């Protein structure tokens, strides 16, 4: 087992659907989707800390197996503490080459609150 896989924890994708509210509008419904493992690490760089002081949400780096393919604005829950995150980058921009001995992809994410 590598250090990367040891740092990974259980996560669950959250899928958004909508349905009529019976009054001409709609309501959002978030349901549990696929389970996966990810290492979710808070960005503690000086730039991130300054941004947080200026009102930017907390920023994280999410590391997953290369074939997982997280997409921009996907939403997931980290099961250990039930925190919700929204992906803010594209995984295809940051993946290991095919010949690398470890196959991972990384995205950035922000701590997020599910809209109702």
Short description:
This protein has 116 residues and is mainly β.
Gross morphology: globular
Overall residue-averaged pLDDT value? 89
* End-to-end CA span: 40 Å
Domain count: the total is 1
Order of helices and strands: HEEHEEEE
Which strand order do you get reading across the main beta sheet?
1-2-3-6-5-4
For CATH, the homologous superfamily is named as Bacteriophage SPP1 head-tail adaptor protein
Strand content: over 45%
- CATH architecture name: Beta Barrel
How would you describe what is shown here?
With 116 residues, the protein is mainly β. It has a single domain (3-111), classed as Bacteriophage SPP1 head-tail adaptor protein (Thrombin, subunit H), CATH 2.40.10. Helices cover 10% and strands 46% of the residues. The longest helix has 8 residues, at 46-53. It is globular. The N and C termini lie far apart (40 Å).
Give the SSE layout.
Blueprint: H1 3-6, E1 9-20, E2 26-42, H2 46-53, E3 59-65, E4 75-78, E5 83-87, E6 104-111
Antiparallel strand pairs: 1-2, 1-4, 2-3, 3-6, 4-5, 5-6
Give me some keywords for this one.
116 residues, mainly beta, six-stranded antiparallel β-barrel, 2 helices, 6 strands
